Every structure is written in structure tokens, then in C-alpha cells.
């Protein structure tokens, strides 16, 4: 691995032992919402952080925070942490669930298949074949190993929060193929391959969510008109060399207009 690749990967993926963020809404809470997840559930892409030095990279503009603000009768615990895998959720985040939890969002799986490394490799390699080979390897992991990790994590969630509504949150496609990106950057073959990885993740995650009796929030259709290279307002960040760890994540509009709107459609 080249030095630039190693630095980019290290900046993009950080796994840390999370501490919960809790919003004090008083003793009359009508329910309890606990947010579990990885960097897509926290603030990378928004450029707004509670503490820029906190490796969990939480911030005020994420869909879980916004949902909690819109539903002040709920108590709220944010356990999500950038870089988390299914194993991290099971060991570090799921224990923060309690039997009185009424709503859980869980956003995980991308780090299990090494998607950060795949993206970084596609950006920093010249040959389409290297990028596409990395994508195919990640998809193979998604179909072979990820189902077991998700099933274990989902079972742990249900055991700790037996009465909660659990919403499994998926990942968007990143690119509009044949869009307005011009000739620079990734080729459309590479962009299509990366989109196919999002489709594979969605297929695997939706299937495991259904087996667990959970609701699957699929963001792809909502995000498609707002992906990189689209002609509309973009909801995901492109490669940002000045802030490499902000790259390829939902921005503030992606959290508010995308994920929050979809979550509200499920929960009311």
C-alpha cells in the first residue's frame, strides 16, 4: 500500500470505543430512541462536530439528532461511532440498549466489507481493473461473511431491546452514471462498480433485517437524483482532498432531506 493510500484510509476509517451522547428531556419521556451505527450515522460529511478531536466524530446535523430534536418527548442515546463494524456494535454499542428502548436505528455493514479501502483504492489507482477488482472482492465478502455479522448483531439488539421498533438504515449509491462530472476523476465503469457495491450491501442488509423482523430503510431511490455527478442538489460529498475524512458521506442535506425524511416516513 502506498503512503498516500495508507494515509487516506486511516483518515477515512476510525474505530473507537464509543461513549454515549444522551439528550436530557426530563422524566416524562414517551419513549426512548437509541442510535447505533458507523460514520454514516454520525457527522463526517457535515463538517459540524461536537468535538473535532473525538474519534467517534459526532455532530449536531445528523439524522438521529434531528429526529430526536423533532420528537422531544423521547429520551435519546447516541451510541454511533465512526469506523464501527458489526462486531463493534455488538460489543460497544448494543450494551447501551435497555429494555425500555422503544426505537433503534442501526446503520452498519460498510466497514465489515472494507468499503473505505475500496473507495480509496479506486480514487488513487489509475487502472479501472484495479478498482473493479477491489469492488468485486468487497461484494464477495458482503455475500459470504456479512450476513453472519449482521445476524449476530441484530439478535443482540433484539435481546437487549425486546419491545423496540428497529429500523435498519442502508447506504445510498454514490454516483449518477453519465452525469455531469466530465472526464476527470473516476471513469463511469468505476462509478458503476461502486454503485453495484451499494446494491449488494442493500440486498444483504435488507434480507437479514427481514429475517430479524426489522424494518429496512432503503435510501437509494431518494438519493439517486442527488448523487455525485447528478444535476440536482447533491446529498453526498465527493472526494475532498482538504478534508479527506469528509469524503463520500451524506452531507447536511443528505441527513435532513434524505435520511431524516425517510425515517420520519417510517416512524411518524
Describe the fold and architecture:
The protein has 268 residues and is an alpha/beta fold. The protein has a 6-stranded mixed β-sheet with strand order 1-3-2-4-5-6, with helices on both faces. The N terminus is likely disordered.
Brief descriptors of the model:
268 residues, six-stranded mixed β-sheet, alpha/beta, 9 helices, disordered N terminus
| Spatial shape | globular
Global mean pLDDT:
89
Provide the succession of SSEs. HEEHEHEHHHEHEHH
Major β-sheet, in short?
A: 6 strands, mixed
Q: Concise description?
A:
With 268 residues, the chain is an alpha/beta fold. Helices cover 42% and strands 10% of the residues.
Describe the secondary-structure layout:
Blueprint: H1 3-12, E1 21-23, E2 31-37, H2 63-70, E3 74-78, H3 86-93, E4 103-107, H4 115-124, H5 128-144, H6 146-160, E5 165-169, H7 188-212, E6 215-217, H8 220-223, H9 252-267
Parallel strand pairs: 2-3, 2-4, 4-5, 5-6
Antiparallel strand pairs: 1-3
Helix pairs in contact: 1-4, 2-9, 3-6, 4-5, 5-7, 6-7
Amino acid at each position: 500500500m502506498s503512503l498516500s493510500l495508507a494515509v487516506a484510509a486511516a483518515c477515512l476509517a476510525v474505530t473507537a470505543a464509543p461513549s454515549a451522547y444522551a439528550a436530557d428531556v426530563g422524566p416524562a419521556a414517551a419513549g426512548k430512541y437509541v442510535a447505533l451505527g458507523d460514520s454514516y450515522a454520525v457527522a463526517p460529511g457535515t463538517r459540524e462536530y461536537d468535538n473535532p478531536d473525538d474519534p467517534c466524530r459526532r455532530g449536531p446535523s445528523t439524522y438521529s439528532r434531528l429526529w430526536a430534536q423533532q420528537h422531544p418527548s423521547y429520551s435519546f442515546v447516541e451510541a454511533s461511532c465512526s469506523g464501527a463494524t458489526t462486531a463493534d456494535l455488538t460489543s460497544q454499542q448494543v450494551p447501551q440498549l435497555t429494555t425500555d428502548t422503544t426505537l433503534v436505528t442501526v446503520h452498519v455493514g460498510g466497514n465489515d466489507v472494507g468499503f473505505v479501502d475500496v473507495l480509496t483504492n479506486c480514487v488513487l489507482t489509475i487502472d479501472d481493473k484495479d478498482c473493479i477488482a477491489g469492488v468485486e472482492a468487497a461484494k464477495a465478502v458482503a455475500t459470504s461473511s456479512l450476513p453472519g455479522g449482521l445476524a449476530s448483531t441484530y439478535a443482540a439488539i433484539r435481546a437487549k431491546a425486546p419491545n423496540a421498533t428497529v429500523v435498519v438504515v442502508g447506504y445510498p449509491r454514490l454516483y449518477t452514471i453519465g452525469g455531469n462530472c466530465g472526464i476527470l476523476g473516476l471513469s463511469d465503469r468505476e462509478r458503476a462498480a461502486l454503485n453495484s457495491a451499494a446494491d449488494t450491501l442493500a440486498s444483504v442488509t435488507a434480507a437479514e433485517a427481514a429475517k430479524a423482523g426489522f424494518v429496512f430503510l432503503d435510501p437509494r431511490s431518494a438519493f439517486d437524483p442527488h448523487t455525485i455527478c447528478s444535476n440536482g442538489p447533491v446529498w453526498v460529498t465527493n472526494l475532498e482532498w482538504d478534508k479527506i475524512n469528509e469524503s463520500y458521506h451524506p452531507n447536511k442535506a443528505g441527513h435532513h432531506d434524505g435520511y431524516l425524511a425517510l425515517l420520519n416516513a417510517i416512524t411518524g
